[in-house]
Design a protein that fits this description.
Helix content is 0%, strand content 70%. It is built from no helices and 8 strands.
Length: 151
């Protein structure tokens, strides 16, 4: 009896994370008082390139961090913005587009940690974390079938 190998694509989902400390170098005021307690981040232009070697997920993101400054003896808050940053993450080599009508779907989320904002006399920095989930991907799988006599 022969053993036959069938090559098939198994539909899979992967998750990937991008974490980075982002620095704003052009605050409108000198942040001598210190960090604020708010931040925001947005991720957009997310694109999966499964034809690249290795496959990649590229994206753009914006972030803003609150800081405090002194104006005429009073403490005020302002935001320092970092707009148009970009990044990418590498996906596993074994992933491919699935055959048939299955299309990859990418979802993303973005968070920042306001408690970790830091300042210098000329900058405001904070950590951002971008999370991605790619569904409807395929990875090649081999199924072995042992030939047998049917009853």
């Amino acid at each position: 009896m022969a053993i036959r190998k069938l090559c098939v694509n198994e539909v899979t989902t992967i998750a990937s994370t991008f974490a980075e400390t982002v620095t704003c170098t052009d605050p409108a005021h000198t942040p001598v008082v210190g960090a604020g307690d708010e931040c925001g981040v947005a991720v957009y232009n997310v694109t999966a390139n499964l034809g690249a070697t290795p496959p990649t997920l590229s994206f753009s993101y914006d972030a803003q961090f609150e800081y405090q400054y002194v104006q005429q003896g009073a403490t005020f808050q302002d935001f320092c913005n970092v707009v148009g940053s970009s990044g990418s993450v590498t996906l596993p080599d074994s992933l491919t587009l699935c055959c048939g009508p299955t299309v990859p779907l990418v979802t993303s989320s973005a968070t920042c940690d306001a408690s970790a904002i830091t300042t210098t006399a000329t900058s405001v920095s904070g950590p951002v974390t971008l999370s991605f989930t790619v569904t409807n991907l395929c990875t090649q799988t081999i199924i072995c079938v042992d030939d047998t006599v049917c009853p």
